[in-house]
Amino acid sequence: MAMAGTRARGFTLIELMVTLVVLIVLVSVAVPSFDYIRLSTRLNSYATDLVAGSQLARSEAIKRNAPVTLCASSNGTSCATDGQWEAGWIVISSGATPTVIQKQPAAASGYRIRDSGGLSALAFEGTGVGATAANFTICRATPVGTPKRLVKISATGRSSVTRTDAGSCAA
């Protein structure tokens, strides 16, 4: 109980409840934005890893003066032919005893990494020139309408990553 002439300080129960309601509304609006940021960051990460893998394959081919391949791989030791890059990929040297130079683990569940032409390997000769170009789409099937990343790697090794919302990410 307050003494005469002094004023009680503090919050009433109603003021506290109103503050909590406002806080809950703000958090419920912000959480979906964080999910979008997390998704976008992961897409960028996979795109960057794919570009780095192609650059490593090209530089190793030049350094060794021998063919080096970036290829899809689910086991981390040999190239796969199914074109499902989300299962992981490797940079591997050619020759009598192929050597795995780098392994990339599988992408998180629900993500797809595919080449538009069904390519499962990207090889660079000892001169640094590739046998073919690649156009990868990196996406997540859900939620519908999520952005995608397009990774273009030319036969000379030049790469670019662009963001797009076009197309679907069907399995």
UniProtKB/TrEMBL annotation:
Cellular localization per UniProt: Cell inner membrane
Primary localization class, coarse: membrane
SUPFAM superfamilies: Pili subunits
Assigned keywords, A-Z: Cell inner membrane, Cell membrane, Membrane, Methylation, Transmembrane, Transmembrane helix
General secretion pathway GspH domain location: 47-157
GO biological process: protein secretion by the type II secretion system
GO cellular component: plasma membrane; type II protein secretion system complex
Protein name: Type II secretion system protein H
Taxonomic lineage from the root: Bacteria, Pseudomonadati, Pseudomonadota, Betaproteobacteria, Burkholderiales
